[in-house]
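User:
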Amino acid sequence: MKKLAELAIFNNAVDSLEHGIRMYRDETYPNAHKYAILAVYQAIELFLKDALYRINPVLIYADIDKQVGDDSRTVGYRDAIARLANLGVHIAPKSKQSIERLQKRRNVVEHREYKPSGDDRSCMADAVKVLYDFVPQYLKDGELADYVDDDLWRELQVFILDYDKLVAEAQTQVDELTTVPPGDYGPEAVECPICGNATLVIGGKDERDYCFFCRRTVPMAQCCDCSEYYPAEMLEEVSRCPECLRAQWEKD
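Assistant: Predicted structure:
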């Protein structure tokens, strides 16, 4: 179940992203991709402002030398990027190019007209990938996946982003974390009960069980008999897994 953040600007950004994903996948609504472009770009600007707000709320305003209020003008994309860079929060040049490509498409839609293009999907996908990578860098109270509807998050991974590439990236992170010199014991990677990939590392992030594909904490527990890992909630009342319980029942 998705969570709500304490900051309204973050929740607003998530709402725009979810709306963009819904429009992105809609094959029946006329000009759905037009609204997906607008929503995804809006989400990007809001997440950038959210990153600034978490450093200091006044940084989201264009003119911080004047008294600010609810109707004060806020920074746009370029100013937000520049301020974040000055504060040590950097966005890679390739990521900037992806955002600016979507920005140009948004400007045409907003100020002239929308003409469907064969690269609408790739344009949005590249920009969403920036959010996918950027938001976890500054988000201190969880993962982006925690705040997005579960079904939409899966849609994002499977249909908008390159699923196989994401799995490969996650596997690389897992390998780097679990590969240790011969004779040493490193963190253990197991199959994630959510995505089914072997990308869940026991104690993999901040000493919590973490799936590098799902990008979320997935608490696991070991069966006291077979030592296999299962979702912690499955072993809350008994410390044995269903298979071991069945074997014990048949034995008795």
